[in-house]
Amino acid sequence: MFSLFNYKTLNNYLIIDTEEININRIKKVLDDFPEFNCVDCDYDYFEPIDVILKNTPDLIFLNLDTILDNPFNLVNEVEQYLKKDYEFIAISSSKEKTYEAIKTGFFDYLLNPITELDIRKAALKFKKKHPNKISKTICLKSYKDYQYLNADEILFLKADNNTTDFYMNNGHTVSAFKTLKTFELILPKNFLRIHKSYIINKNYVNRVNYGTLNCTLKKCLKKIPFSKTYINNVEFMINTLSQTSVLGLS
Known about the structure:
By secondary structure, the protein is α/β, with parallel strands linked by helices.
């Protein structure tokens, strides 16, 4: 048994602060919002950029008073690597840093000692600017076992007789007792069948080779074959990916 349904995407947040009272207060308030998920609370200010890029959060609480390097340079550096819809919220005991923080691009500013009310206002302000996106999840049921897969995290599906293996972007493989055809009919449009045994998530494709009749995916060492039977799907995939790419000829 399986089902496909919509759910609201979580907003992952990260706290970089050495003050435990701040960390606990932020987590306490955001626990009231089911769409917020804490990915890490970090006390190491020597390599904050590494912590941020490792977790790729949507919202970053950053204490400006205890970071060793210039926090405003950090914001500019992160901007080179993360997607454009993340936000920084500054924490500081100094009102003098407010102007610089806003000018640098901080989303909001919390003055120490931070209060639950101020945190809640910042959370609601973030929600208003970033309404929840709708994504997809697949529920696989086997007897009394329910397993939920985020469709955005699926690299590809492979047929194995009358079962289907889901290869995930974290390296895990999940098996379902349904045929590949069953999932082909219900998966989102970014999933394309390119072979009798394979359906791929085109959002992960980084190379298509007509010479060897295979394609490669991000986060996957395995080359996925495609066949002439499904060549129309392959060409459609190339056309749609090309529309959002810069063409370089060699």
